[in-house]
């Protein structure tokens, strides 16, 4: 079932990404907006965004490394599927689910909030693919949720690391 959801979801995302080709009257979409910039600006936007995604993936990778191996619901390297465009738009939901399940199995606190923020930015990034104002609004709302999710991930990582490697206590 999950393979079917991934395949059908990726097909739908690909259709949405390609709407400037089959429905140019709807506008050029985010890719057209980026392509409409000077080459150096387009390259900087794409490189900057991909760098942020890489740092985010690194944080999620660390999360799964900090979870006890027996509680892990996915391999730590699986979070790097976020770079598999256009599949990543669907896979991100599965990544959030696997990390949330791993955190819950390891007894971490705040997993429901973490998962809710994660599913929120995942859904809004799909909305961001829609043409016009709906897509712009989806993207504008997805970015702060993504940032909040990332910050919560960093907090969870600190808590997991402190549990695994408690700070040394110095006695006089």
Question: How does this model look, in words?
Answer:
- This protein is an all-alpha fold and 172 residues long.
- It has one domain.
- It is 72% helix and 0% strand.
- The chain contains 7 helices and no strands.
- Helix 1 crosses helix 5, helix 5 packs antiparallel against helix 6 and helix 6 packs antiparallel against helix 7.
- The longest helix is centred in the last third of the chain and has 33 residues.
- The radius of gyration is 18 Å and the shape is elongated.
- The chain starts with a helix and ends in an 8-residue tail after the last helix.
- The mean pLDDT is 92.
How would you briefly describe this protein structure?
Helices cover 72% and strands 0% of the residues.
């Amino acid at each position: 079932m999950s393979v079917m959801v991934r395949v059908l979801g990726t097909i739908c995302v690909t259709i949405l990404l390609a709407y400037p080709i089959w429905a140019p009257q709807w506008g050029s979409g985010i890719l057209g907006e980026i392509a409409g910039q000077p080459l150096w600006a387009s390259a900087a936007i794409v490189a900057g965004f991909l760098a942020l995604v890489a740092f985010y993936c690194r944080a999620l990778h660390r999360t799964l490394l900090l979870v006890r191996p027996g509680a892990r619901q996915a391999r730590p390297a699986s979070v790097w599927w976020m770079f598999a465009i256009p599949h990543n738009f669907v896979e991100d939901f599965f990544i959030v689910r696997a990390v949330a399940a791993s955190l819950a199995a390891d007894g971490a606190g705040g997993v429901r909030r973490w998962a809710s923020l994660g599913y929120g930015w995942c859904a809004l990034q799909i909305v961001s693919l829609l043409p016009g104002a709906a897509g712009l609004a989806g993207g504008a709302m997805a970015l702060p949720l993504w940032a909040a999710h990332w910050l919560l991930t960093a907090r969870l990582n600190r808590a997991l690391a402190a549990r695994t490697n408690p700070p040394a206590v110095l006695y006089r």
